[in-house]
From TrEMBL:
Species for this entry: Sphingomonas gilva
Modifications the protein undergoes after translation, according to the UniProt entry: Contains an active site 4-methylidene-imidazol-5-one (MIO), which is formed autocatalytically by cyclization and dehydration of residues Ala-Ser-Gly.
MF annotations from Gene Ontology: histidine ammonia-lyase activity
Residues where 2,3-didehydroalanine (Ser) is found: S140
This enzyme's EC code(s): 4.3.1.3
InterPro entries, per database record: Aromatic_Lyase (IPR001106), Fumarase/histidase_N (IPR024083), HutH (IPR005921), L-Aspartase-like (IPR008948), Phe/His_NH3-lyase_AS (IPR022313)
The protein, known as: Histidine ammonia-lyase
GO terms under biological process: L-histidine catabolic process to glutamate and formamide; L-histidine catabolic process to glutamate and formate
Main location (coarse class): cytoplasm
Cross-link (5-imidazolinone (Ala-Gly)): A139-G141
GO cellular component labels: cytoplasm
Gene: hutH
Family designation: Belongs to the PAL/histidase family.
HAMAP family in the record: His_ammonia_lyase
Amino acid sequence: MLLSPGAVSYADWRAIHDGADVRLDPACRAAVAESAAAVERILAAGEPVYGINTGFGKLASVRIEAGDLATLQRNIVLSHAAGVGEPMPAPVVRLMMALKLASLARGASGVAPRTVELIEAMLERDLLPVIPAQGSVGASGDLAPLAHMAAAMIGVGEILVDGRRVEAGRALVDAGLAPLELGPKEGLALLNGTQFSCAHALAGLFAAERLYRVGLVTGILSTEAAKGSDAPFDHRIHALRGHRGQIETANALRRMMEGSGIRASHRVDDLRVQDPYCLRCQPQVMGAVLDLLRQAAATLVTEANGVSDNPLIFADTDEALSGGNFHAEPVAFAADMIALALCEIGGIAERRIAMLVDPALSGLPAFLTPRPGLNSGFMIPQVTAAALVSENKQRATPASVDSIPTSANQEDHVSMAAHGSRRLLEMAANVDAILAIELLAGAQGCDFHAPLTSSAPVEAVRALLRAEVPTLTDDRHMAPDIEAAIALVRSSALLDATGPLPGLES
């Protein structure tokens, strides 16, 4: 895939995360070279310039002599590589590297062409630095994790090669690459920026978009199991309110119920005037989720195509301007929005599960078992879903409001975007399990309506599940059933079976 800095689409970033090859647009190379030349001219002028011939952060007033400039850049990488915790997931590392590549290739960071070429070559060879996931506050850039990436580029630390952790210098040499020798400004350019936070936020967004769609499918399955009405999905209701996401969600839900024999069986003699909110208000809740995710996507795609290190080099005037593009507040806000969306996808799904296992609300056998009492059925899977929802409620607390001063109060307001973005994949994993439990419960509920069948899309989903998990007649070991359903939720098969559903690019 051709990476055109400043013009990379949401779909392209998702493809990179999923493993697509990356090739930098050759048209950007002239700007990179000119930016590096501008740094040399700035140095020749002899004036102190932050990050080029001075110390960093609170030490910016310390002037560095010309003979120590290479050591300065190496030192900042090594000293800032102070992360802790579990390594970043490999797809997120790949995405972070591509984000950094695109940022540097805009030609405003002052790095030499060889630096850009090394990142490109590492991506091409799938050489992914081992990067601890904790240690950034989202300003002054994602310093610690990006420093670990930069350390691998100079041959320090470890690189993942074919699933094995290999000493970085050895991994580079074995791949036919030489460890990088940093020039003026280059260490700072590599470790200053929002790419760690942005990569995690994008990865969370990709997961949230999939879960929004899966939540529509499991929601309709539950609606059919409870013999719910499709009247709340009538397009006239949603047109009067006007929210795009709500309108598109209602249309999708209505389409998935078209032709349902279960719905037709109770259309005339339905005694329930109104369904519970977890069924009736699906367009309003999930539509708001879709609108929120689209807003987050717009922010993150803009961020992904921007330049967020400091200082920035303007080659036309030979200026190095210090600013604050490293402050990841836009990413932090986007991550908080995604967290809210994930929380609500899981929250309303759990309410549908609870409704289905309650005979007073669903009209189905207690806990969805043919012989309640002797069997517990879906009693504890609903408890598991409730536990996961509560975990996500706690994690959805906004991270962006939790600033903490760092660097001797020089960096006195930070975004916490790294923490806010990093939690998203864990939240998404919880929602995977919640929707998997709803998939099982909804299918079990529909089984009680046999020989009536649902619509073609819903029956296709039920067939996929039943190929892996049989109907629950008597109690059995539930964990394997849930794991099989989780695998289905995470696969493309479930969504392929339903036809097109709204998304962030539709």
